[in-house]
């Protein structure tokens, strides 16, 4: 991105930050701020970045996994770190919810970040686990060549979790466009946010169990007229080589052709009917989001980068716990004694 584009990019993000703070203040809560830790622990954000960069460079899937943790956290009770809590007699852990069970990962990296941040902050729990998730998501995107943004900070951690809410509110890979729009609208996110945030699938992989039906069945009833199918026939055949009809649930398929690079190829794939998940291709299937998908797939992904960053800021503002609400966990996996 050229210097002029970067200047415009960060100027508008600053305006978004001011607007977010004003909204939070008017609602009666302590507003989030990108400078929340500047005085109380100025070494916090560099510590997070170091651990994330090491984890992402050491494991090809980790960037996408950390981004997904923040997304799945924010869609359940708001961005409060509830996804990190292990099950106890009083905690109905979200880790065992259908969208997360044997799928959500990166928890050990969050533990490493927490240890390093506490050390950088004088051995005290100053930075919340919810904020760690938000910053780690941003740093993961940057580590994979994507845009940066100013993360709003000052969230506190929940003392509860909800597996039921996770099952109900985290979007499913089998959803069609109306269901996706409804899911995002429930969180205060609009249609453009839906498409931009779905673009996070430009990095990472999915398990076969989540795309098997698409590659085997979504052309079956159109076999004599494949021009009407919403999946490229050759693409489906290629994916069947590693995702079998009756086995291989955990086998991985890349969500786009460059799963280690944050770019606009995800949207180009959708236009070519090569979306891996049903919910991906639903964004380009003759509906109201088609034009946004086309736009993001052009101009070297610049408009996608900008919208993704601003939508991440917006998502990060979903019902944060601030002020005296919640706590700063000593261990991200447990509520403080």
Write the layout of secondary structure elements.
Layout: H1 3-26, H2 44-58, H3 62-74, H4 107-120, H5 129-143, H6 163-169, H7 177-185, H8 191-198, E1 205-207, H9 212-217, H10 233-240, E2 252-254, H11 265-271, H12 278-281, H13 290-296, H14 302-316
Antiparallel strand pairs: 1-2
Helix pairs in contact: 1-14, 2-4, 2-5, 3-5, 8-14, 11-13
Structure description:
Helix content is 45%, strand content 2%. It is an all-alpha fold and 337 residues long. Residues 1-21 form the signal peptide. Ca(2+) 1 binds at residues 73, 76, 78, 80, 82, 94. Residues 31-336 form the Plant heme peroxidase family profile domain. Heme b binds at residue 201.
Short description:
This protein is mainly alpha-helical and 337 residues long.
Global Rg = 20 Å
Give the fraction of residues assigned to helices: 40-55%
Strand order of the largest sheet: 1-2
The average pLDDT score comes to 91
User: Largest sheet, if any?
Assistant: 2 strands, antiparallel
Active site: 72
GO biological process, one term: hydrogen peroxide catabolic process
Binding site for Ca(2+) 2: 202, 256, 263
Binding site for substrate: 171
Give short descriptive properties of this protein.
337 residues; mainly alpha; two-stranded antiparallel ribbon; 14 helices; signal; EC 1.11.1.7; iron; hydrogen peroxide
